[in-house]
Amino acid sequence: MLKLHKWAYVKFSTQAMIMVELIEVGLATISKAAMIKGMSNFVFVVYYNALGTAILLPCFVGHRLRSNRLPITFPLLSRLFLLGLIGLCLSQMCAFAGISYTSPTLAAAMGNLIPVFTFSLAVILRMEKLDLRNISSQAKSLGTIIAISGALIATLYKGPPLLMAQTSSDSPHLLFSQQSKWLIGCLLLTVTFLLLSIWNILQAATTKEYPDEVTIVFFYSLFGTIQSSFLSFILERTTSAWKLHNRIEIIAIVYGAVSVTVLRAGIITWCLRERGPVFVAMFKPFGIAIAIFMGFVFLRDTLYLGSVIGAAAIVAGFYGVIWGQAKDKENAITKLESPSCEKTPLLQSKQRI
Length: 353
Known about the structure:
By secondary structure, the chain is an all-alpha fold. The chain has one domain. The chain contains 12 helices and 2 strands. It has helices at 2-36, 41-66, 74-101, 104-110, 113-124, 135-156, 172-209, 213-235, 247-274, 277-281, 286-298, 305-352, and strands at residues 161-163, 303-304. A two-stranded antiparallel ribbon has the order 1-2. Helix 5 crosses helix 6. It is globular, with a radius of gyration of 23 Å.
């Protein structure tokens, strides 16, 4: 009975993380479809986050009224303001601009750069030690190099098409324009995941100092919405761009607000608490397969050789970094347990004397 319960628990958490990947790739796909129809990526970021913040508002108010929570101080609000700027305003604007120039498949592949960038920043900031004599450090270093190489391949080498959903009779000038947009899109996606890596480090530190996830998520979303609105009004001055012209734009906004802001956040929070960050990260490459299928079926995207080679290298590097982090945790647990095992006989021998 215990084995069955444990199996059901693992099955549920696995299905939950697969749902998260479906939600994330779904957002990239549906937003690309809306942008193909003419929706501005700046307008999408503002509307989708504003609706998500409005949904979170009653949850936040009820959460604060139900129990006595930690006080909200000005230093905390300042840090949440910075989290909103990095993790929501700037990163999402770069992300959706990058997706509009490339494809959801490439965005899903390059998303595996987050743990690679996070590890690199942790080493630079001396939050993590790098000992190349240790096999875990070797795995993380090699994984970082391989993943970054994969990102460069996907950016600089498009290659011939492997899956072609639509025929093209583009002129050489138009093909050159598409290559330029592809390069810009890849660079924007790289900046996106670098910003999210910085955000991960800041968020981890904030959560430790202020363990109230509902308050953090609400104010982070609120500040991010205000910041993205201010920046979008400067970058997108055309009045017609702020009007919703077709059904796909409304569907994309509602989907992003409900599925991503509310549902995805709840699932990831639960899985992080119950299974840990390594388990959550292991499902990231699964999004590539989902993105290839959805992009080919719904967006008629073309799959290029450079994207496949780059994605394979990024995934291989991703697993190298994750394996190294898991090995470090295993070694730390072993070191903590071994002294206690050695001390017990000594204590017993003293009592006998």
